[in-house]
Amino acid sequence: MHAMQYEITLPADYDMGIIRKRVADKGHLLDAHPGLGLKAYLIRERGHQGAPVNQYAPFYLWRTAEGMNGFLWGPGFRSLSADFGRPVVRHWLGAGLVGGTVTGTAGTAPTTATRHTVRLPETADPAEAVERALAELPVHPALHTAAVAVDPSRWELLTIALWHGRAPEEAAGTRYRVLHLSRPELDRLPAGRHW
C-alpha cells in the first residue's frame, strides 16, 4: 500500500463552491481506477473547524504502484496541474490499515477526516514507532477507515482516519471535510500490519 496526498492552498476569499462543483463533476472518474484502494476528496475551509486556510487536499491509498503511476502520468493529474499548477505530491509507504466496525456503514461514504503527522526523533526505533501507531489506531463507532504510513526520507509517521459524521474531538491532527470517496479496491487492501 502507498499513501499519497497533495495540498492546494487557495486564497482566503476563494469560492470553495468551485471545488465542490469540480468534485461533483469529476469525482466519479476514479471510482473504478485500477490499483486505487481509495481517494478521499478532502477540503479545508477557512474558519471551519479552526482551519486557517482554504485548501483542496485529496488523499489516496494505492493498492499498486502501477495504479499510482497511471494516475500521476495520466489525464486526471494533468488536468489538475493545468488548472492549479503542479502541486508537490507527498507519499508514504503503507504500514497498516484498519476498517470501521459499525455494521452497515462500511459501504457508506465518510464525511470527515483527520490527518496527523509526526517526525520520528533520530533516537526512535522506527519499527517500534510504527507498532505503537498501529496499536493506537482508533477503535470508534464512527470510524470508516484508518491507516498508518511512513515517509522514510523524512522519517515522518502519518496517521489518517476517515469518519462517519463529525470526527471525534480526541482525534488528533488536521481536520477535513470529505466531499466524495472513490474506493474501487479498498476491499483488496490488506488489513492489519503490512510487513
Structure description:
This protein has 195 residues and is α+β, with helices and mostly antiparallel strands. The chain has one domain: Alpha-Beta Plaits. The protein contains four helices and eleven strands; from the N terminus they run E-E-H-E-E-E-H-H-E-E-H-E-E-E-E. Strand 8 (143-151) and strand 9 form a beta hairpin. The longest helix has 10 residues, at 17-26. The termini are close together.
**Oligomeric form:** single chain
The gross shape turns out to be globular
User: Percentage of helical residues?
Assistant: 10-25%
Helix/strand order, N-terminal first: EEHEEEHHEEHEEEE
In the sheet with the most strands, the strands line up as 1-5-3-10-7-9-8-6
Mean pLDDT over the full residue set = 93
Query: Helix count?
Result: 4
Q: Please summarize the sheet with the most strands.
A: 8 strands, antiparallel, barrel
* Poorly predicted spans: none
Strand content: 35-45%
The CATH architecture can be named as 2-Layer Sandwich
Task: Let me know the number of strands.
Answer: 11
User: Which fold name fills CATH's third level, the topology?
Assistant: Alpha-Beta Plaits
CATH class: Alpha Beta
- N- to C-terminal separation? 11 Å
Count of structural domains: 1
Structural class: alpha+beta
Task: Write a compact overview of the structure shown.
The chain is an alpha+beta fold and 195 residues long. It has helices spanning 17-26, 65-72, 75-84, 126-135; strands at 2-6, 8-10, 36-44, 54-56, 59-62, 89-99, 112-119, 143-151, 156-163, 174-182, 192-193. Helices cover 19% and strands 36% of the residues.
